[in-house]
Sequence to fold (285 residues):
Amino acid sequence: MIERRHRVIGILALATAICMAAPVGAAAQEPGTVVDADSRVMGLSYVFEQTGVEVPYAVFVPSDYDASREWPLIVALHGLGRPYDWMMGYDSFIDSAERDGYIVVSPLGYHRRAWYGSRGYGIPRGAARADDEGTLPDNLGELSEQDVMNVLAIAQESYNIDDSRIYLWGHSMGGAGTYHLAARYPDIWAGLAVAAPAPRRDALDEVEAFRDIPVLVLHGDADATVPVAGSRTWVARMRELGMQHVYIEVPGGDHSLFVREVPETLSKVFAFFNIVGKRERAARQ
Fold:
């Protein structure tokens, strides 16, 4: 059982050509920055039952929310080292969710560098930093995965969610988490979207576990952090399996700014989710 403690804490018709990311610098962001800057984004928390730790997450609810009808939900997974509300701050993200009527939740993943379970259920390599060395739980990866599922459950309890339209979207580490959680819980997700995903090299077999879920993959061909070759390999496997997927490789695109600060790129995620869902999938089968 999850103890909730609310508090504000201050396919396939998509264009294949999108704009190259502008050379804008990425500033550091403290937890709650987006919450403080955008009144539409709520910073909440709950107590993680197994550890007693209070874990933050962010929520966006469309202004015309009406509990008498069902609403689609996006679960957004941030990249390595980012704060819980990071994804909510992507240029045009909240505007797009408002326009298209999506509730959005953005979990921390228990810890900024815990990989949502995608790098094992222990302490992932690189998770510990000088300020938390020796303080991380031995099952950090497991807790990270469970935090996502806890936040999903909270959203389903709090709002009238359309279970046929629950989507998972992640960037970098969050893309790895998206692949992992899709493989672990394939019956939940109506569609997946990843940007510059960073899965383990030996995780390619996960694709078969979510072969029935439509996938959008975005990657810049100039990504110096997570080389585009990895996404090409995963997309080739999707093609072999006959999966419904869209792959958009951005000429000159970097690792982060090509989606975080380019609304034309991010719009592909909403365009994709707008046309895929469990009902549409069932109709095709």
Confidence is low (pLDDT under 50) at residues 1-26. The first strand starts at residue 3 and ends at 5. The helical segments are 33-37, 93-100, 140-158, 173-184, 229-240, 257-260, 263-273, 278-284.
